[in-house]
């Protein structure tokens, strides 16, 4: 038996219907042991339903769930050895921090003599060492979420499921927690499945991201692959900050945008209706002017928005089509931005020339 067969999780052709609504539509997914996978998609795309099928709270209408060689499709949640973290913490307000964390051990009938040390270890992991006797109401939002995490990891589950665990936190704390969750994942070695609607969070934390739309799994890939090689227009527009432009095929490795031919380093998708997905940071003002291989677009600056760490520049192609790009906020980079009304040339590397079918 290899490692995957021991602790990997597989979902095979899982479908979930609620009356006329298909919440999940024939989804298959193999998650390797120790992998951090995020389920990413807009509201209503089936993320929570898929997580529920993994956790045993939702029974699929058809399909199965496997942990290694074991079919757990109909196993109740408490028989699955899964740690769970929800968005709203679901802590017991009348219990202390320590009692909340120990609850997982009590529920699993672990020997009481082991509780104190295991609770202390779990709290140390989430950087709340010594918080055992605090009341839940004395904690900040971020601390509550860490207690919920400690409760999920205290019994050392192989699999941890998280449903939008950071979405109640403010931006700065969310970003700190993303980094901490990654660290914790490395430390624990557990498999983590995390639900989020925040593409940046998914890219930051995950080994692989599964993109869901209307109950279907659209693409599962590493963050880099997902960002650089989106499989369709939905993924391309959902990830990053892409402008989608109508283009037509111009040979095997090029497309036509207005009067301009753009070469791509990637195979073109099938079909005649194509879209160019241009991420804002991939367009370079006057970039590599002497470099023969880059694509160039002439345009006119229409607006420049100062956004602190970067600036967003809006521009119009000769036929009026709007594009936008990002420049870093450094003075050096800002000097390159022409004033509104002025024309400029922007470069796009063929590697960054991403074409998807419309
Ligand atoms: N218990 C339920 N009864 C009826 N419809 C449901 C139920 N749970 C989810 N749905 C529907 O299934 C779809 C997917 O929901 P969900 O998995 O919660 O999506 P997400 O977590 O991505 O927002 C939605 O259309 C939702 O309204
Ligand atoms: Mg949900």
Order of helices and strands, N to C? HEEEHEEEHHHEHEHEEHHEEEEEEEEHEE
Provide mean pLDDT, rounded. Answer: 92
Helix residue percentage: 25-40%
Give the strand line-up of the largest sheet. 6-7-8-3-9-10
Rg value: 24 Å
Q: Could you describe the largest sheet, including whether it forms a barrel?
A: 6 strands, mixed
Number of helices: 10
Distance between the termini: 44 Å
Strand content: 25-35%
* CATH C-level label of the largest domain: Alpha Beta
Number of domains: 2
CATH architecture of the largest domain: 3-Layer(aba) Sandwich
The number of E-state strands comes to 20
Uncertain spans: 1-5
Could you state the CATH homologous superfamily of the largest domain?
A: P-loop containing nucleotide triphosphate hydrolases
Structural class: alpha+beta
| Global morphology | globular
Catalytic activity: ATP + H2O + polyamine-[polyamine-binding protein]Side 1 = ADP + phosphate + polyamineSide 2 + [polyamine-binding protein]Side 1
InterPro entries: AAA+_ATPase (IPR003593), ABC_SmlMolc_Importer (IPR050093), ABC_transporter-like_ATP-bd (IPR003439), ABC_transporter-like_CS (IPR017871), Mo/tungstate-bd_C_term_dom (IPR008995), P-loop_NTPase (IPR027417), PotA-like (IPR005893), Transp-assoc_OB_typ2 (IPR013611)
Domain ABC transporter: 9-239
Subunit structure: The complex is composed of two ATP-binding proteins (PotA), two transmembrane proteins (PotB and PotC) and a solute-binding protein (PotD).
């Amino acid at each position: 038996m290899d490692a995957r067969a021991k602790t990997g999780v597989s979902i095979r052709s899982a479908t979930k219907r609620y009356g006329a609504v298909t919440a999940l539509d024939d989804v298959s997914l193999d998650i390797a042991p120790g992998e951090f996978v995020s389920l990413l998609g807009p509201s209503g795309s089936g993320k929570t339903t898929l997580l529920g099928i993994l956790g045993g709270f939702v029974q699929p209408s058809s399909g199965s769930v496997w942990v290694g060689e074991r079919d757990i499709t109909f196993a109740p949640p408490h028989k699955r050895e899964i740690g769970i973290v929800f968005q709203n913490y679901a802590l017991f307000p009348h219990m202390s921090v320590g009692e909340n964390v120990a609850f997982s051990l009590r529920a699993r009938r672990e020997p009481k003599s082991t509780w104190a040390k295991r609770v202390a270890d779990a709290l140390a992991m989430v950087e709340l060492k010594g918080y055992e006797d605090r009341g839940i109401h004395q904690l900040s939002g971020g601390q509550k979420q860490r207690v919920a995490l400690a409760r999920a990891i205290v019994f050392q589950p192989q699999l941890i499921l998280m449903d939008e665990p950071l979405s109640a936190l403010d931006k700065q704390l969310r970003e700190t927690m993303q980094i901490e969750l990654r660290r914790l994942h490395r430390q624990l070695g557990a498999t983590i499945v995390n639900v989020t609607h925040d593409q940046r969070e998914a890219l930051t934390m995950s080994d692989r991201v599964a993109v869901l739309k209307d109950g279907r799994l659209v693409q599962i890939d590493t963050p880099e692959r997902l960002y650089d090689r989106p499989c369709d227009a939905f993924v391309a527009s959902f990830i990053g900050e892409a402008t989608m432009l109508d283009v037509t095929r111009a040979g095997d490795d090029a497309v036509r945008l207005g009067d301009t031919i753009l070469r791509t380093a990637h195979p073109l998708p099938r079909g005649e209706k194509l879209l160019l997905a241009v991420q804002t940071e991939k367009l370079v003002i006057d970039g590599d002017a002497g470099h023969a291989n880059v694509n160039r677009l002439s345009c006119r600056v229409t607006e420049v928005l100062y956004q602190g760490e970067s600036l967003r520049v809006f521009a119009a192609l000769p036929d009026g089509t709007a594009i936008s790009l990002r420049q870093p906020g450094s003075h050096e980079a800002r000097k390159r931005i022409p004033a509104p009304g002025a024309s400029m040339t922007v470069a796009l590397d063929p590697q960054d020339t991403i074409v998807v079918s419309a």
